[in-house]
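Hey, I'm writing a tutorial for new members on how sequence and structure tokens pair up, and I'd like a real worked example in the thread rather than a made-up one. If someone can provide the structure for the chain below, I'll link this post from the tutorial.
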Amino acid sequence: MAKLLVLVNPVAGRGKSLKALPRIEKGLKDLGLEYDLDRTKAPDDAAAMAAEAAKAGYEVVACVGGDGTVSETGRGLIYTDTALALIPEGTGDDFARAIKVRTLPAALRALKARNIQTIDVGRFGAHTFLNSVGVGFDGQVTHDNQDVKTLTGILSYLVVVLKNLPTYRNPHFHLKGRDWEFKSKGLLVEVGNGQCAGGGFFLTPHADLQDGLLDVTLVGDYGPMQRFVALPMVFLRQMSSLKGVSSFKTDMLEIAVDRPTYIHVDGNLKHMSGPATVQILKNALKVVFPG
């Protein structure tokens, strides 16, 4: 048995991962890396297959896909001795930015070097996440992005963001930390272990995968014009300079919303209908970084 399992999500990136597979296999063979290959067939397969791979003694599971695939794969490897690697072929690839493995050559070099480090993992209610969770506006964007069939990357999300900026109805948030409480309408709450979401929207630009804390950004009760003004600041990583935006670090947060709300968990669409607790799982996952 090879020490490396390559796990492919054939539908990731609207088919990008499957198209890239011949190049990936050639790259692995050119580097002399022995590997086994398997493919997911349904949602949540990656988590179960990664967990089985850890039990079977694989040293590394390299997933081919985007943020949703790497999140599911990582879930199956939490608190195991098997490391997670990423070959990014998704729509947003935000976790790839966080670990600085954004291209196939970079991913192959990382697999060869095997620079394995431990990162934190977030938990949002019953869900774990490696990169970020968004409640409110970006949950709606994730939902509507499912209907975009021809674009990938940040353009895929930007089209949907611009469509929703004038019309989105802000929910009421109730946030509660260890020694503080907040109640107000707001555009979104983003909880980041990584720095960006949606293919390059830097909503938590100071997040660190290894600091034992989650970064939280709350965008207040912004109307349509304020939203358009704020959008460029997201790309410039200057959210904290805007009035009505609060950013802080925490290891625990309770979130409630006044109505059933879409959320994204590492780009996977979920639904929030009741209060949820967000917390950090410190040093929970081994990850292959660039050498």
